[in-house]
Amino acid sequence: MTTIALPSYEDATSRYEPVIGLETHVELGTKTKMFCGCKTDFGAEPNTQVCPVCLALPGALPVMNGAAIEATIRIGLALNCDIAEWCRMARKNYFYPDMPKNFQTSQYDEPLCVDGYVDVTVDGKEYRVEIERVHIEEDTGKTLHVGGATGRIHGATESLVDYNRAGIPLVEIVTKPVPGLGDRAPEIAKAYVAELRDIIRALDVSDVRMEQGSMRCDVNTSLNLPGEEWGTRTETKNVNSLRSVERAVRSEIIRQAGLLDVGTRIFQETRHFQETTGDTRPGRSKETATDYRYFPEPDLVPIAPDTAWVAKLKTELPEKPSVKRARLREDWGITEVEMQSAANAGAIELIEETIAAGASPAGARKWWLGELARRSNELGVDLVEVGATPAQVAALQKLVDGGKLNDKLARQVLEGVVAGEGEPADVMKARGLEVVSDTGALQKAVDEAIEANPAIAAKIRDGKVAAAGALVGAVMKTTRGQADAKTVRDLILSRLGAS
């Protein structure tokens, strides 16, 4: 097998034009499944939330979940879609072990919501991502391949199927192809999914927790030379974090550019993103709609939403995330660039919750966009997964504001919190990191610093109080950073008669 030399990302995007498209699946937070009364609780024992309907036993008939239809319409309205006055469910036929019926009840040529859009901002520039359709369907079960090295079916000795997820209401949001993004394509893909997540979370119809699979993204990518027709697309399946969406697009651009450079054809196929390596691996050739043999679902009546009801739902939509960001930016007293940085880091909600827990806007932003953002980058995880909660960050800032910690000691406490050592106050006590402000305890360290630095002490006695900073530094070093700097400075000046 010949190894192809891959170009740099900058080189690839200077010569080829990427076109992206995203298909996002969102599990709705309904209490029961799409066509039966089974629970939808995450993390239940395998195959304990099933019944004859979602297992497709003979004679079992589906009944539509009205709450799921309403949630889908609300999503469509929030995405600026037109809502169909009449549509139908369809059978999407294909065999896979996690499909009890050997078909998925979905929608084909008559989706519930069409022709919407989402606007996203990256580095101060606004981009519009057009939505082709939003339709309702049911989720599949979950297959676990065991006995192999990769966790996939190839090389596995056996496969286990959990049907708890089969039949959970699932909304699929499909964009139109998005050309003209150039080298910003990966960032815009990430920004779109982040905005979509914020919109759906604001609607309170799903927890959109990508790490639990309740929001999953299929990323389509193709390349073409300037002025030529769009290239053949690949579909990277089930990308489960914002960071991975960006990396998947970037990786496919580089891989496809390398193949096109040597005249190799790009095949339409599904691919799998590898978190550890940051690249994609081949899955299967991509079926067309004809291969799925769609036909109308005969066991379900059509969906015909009342127009007055839809209009009422539209008036009840919550504040748009973009409007909310503008309001928060004014409340927090920050610039648009600073708010965009918080949005790009996925930190807005975390900062908001930290402020609600008692921290100041400046304090909340400092930790989430500073130390915690650095750790999330180092660990290669989204900020929400870094290991600290908004309540813990607020408690940490309260210790700083109360003078029990300085920023240096607080970073050490945060390190312990992230490591799972407990709440900030507990970590502070266990590690002995509390600021020492007792003058009696500090006086000895101050005297030693003065004695060890007579020349500096003489300058201070002569009125050059700025020189006190060197002695403060010496005391801080002796006390391992635990001394209260202001108290130390006051003691030094008093001792040397310069206060």
From TrEMBL:
SMART domains given in the database record: GatB_Yqey
A Pfam family: GatB_Yqey
Top-level division of the source organism's lineage: Bacteria
Annotated EC: 6.3.5.-
Domain Asn/Gln amidotransferase intervals: 349-496
InterPro entries: Asn/Gln-tRNA_amidoTrfase_suB/E, Asn/Gln-tRNA_Trfase_suB/E_cat, Asn/Gln_amidotransferase, Asn/Gln_tRNA_amidoTrase-B-like, GatB, GatB_Yqey_C_2, Gln-tRNA_amidoTrfase_suB_CS, Gln_synth/guanido_kin_cat_dom
GO biological process, one term: translation
Catalytic activities: L-glutamyl-tRNA(Gln) + L-glutamine + ATP + H2O = L-glutaminyl-tRNA(Gln) + L-glutamate + ADP + phosphate + H(+); L-aspartyl-tRNA(Asn) + L-glutamine + ATP + H2O = L-asparaginyl-tRNA(Asn) + L-glutamate + ADP + phosphate + 2 H(+)
Record's function text: Allows the formation of correctly charged Asn-tRNA(Asn) or Gln-tRNA(Gln) through the transamidation of misacylated Asp-tRNA(Asn) or Glu-tRNA(Gln) in organisms which lack either or both of asparaginyl-tRNA or glutaminyl-tRNA synthetases. The reaction takes place in the presence of glutamine and ATP through an activated phospho-Asp-tRNA(Asn) or phospho-Glu-tRNA(Gln).
Protein name according to UniProt: Aspartyl/glutamyl-tRNA(Asn/Gln) amidotransferase subunit B
Organism: Actinoplanes derwentensis
Lineage, uppermost ranks: Bacteria, Bacillati, Actinomycetota, Actinomycetes, Micromonosporales
